[in-house]
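Hi R.,

Here's the chain you asked about this morning:
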Amino acid sequence: MRAGPLATVGGVVLLALLVAGCETGTSASDGEDGGSADQHGGEAPRHEPDQQVDRNVVEDDVLVIVDDGSQVHGRCADREVVVTADDAEVVLDGPCGVVRATGRGSSVEVGSAEKIVLVGVDNTVSYTSGEPEVINRGRDTIVDQGGAAAA
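And the predicted structure, written out as C-alpha cells:
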C-alpha cells in the first residue's frame, strides 16, 4: 500500500475514481515514487486528476483500492473502504466504517463494518462480527458473516 497525493474523501473520491476509470492504463512515464509525474516532451498530457488516482490510496480516514488484482492485508482502523479494483483480495482486520465494493470479482473481508454497500459485479464482502447495514445493489454479489479478518 502506498500513500497517494489525493486529498479528498468520501463520495468525492468515488466520483473521481469513476471519472478516472475512463482511462485504461498508465504510461511508462508515470512516477513510481508516488509523486506526481510531470508530463512534457513528445507525449500528450493527461489530466491531473487521472494521475492522482491510478494507484491505491491510503489516508487517515479512507482506503481506496483501485489497482486491479491487488492483494491487501492490514488494519482497517475505522477507515472508509472503497474497492473499485477488479479481482482484488482485501483482508482488513478490526473495525471499518463504510465498506463499498464497486469493482468486479473482488473479495473483501473485514473485522466489522458500520455499513456495506455493493454496486459492482461478482463481489463478495464478509464481516467477522457485528451487524452492519447492508445495501446490495450489485449483480451476483454476496454479503455474509465470516471470513479470515480478525474482529
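The chain is about 10% helix and 35% strand.

Let me know if you need anything else.
M.
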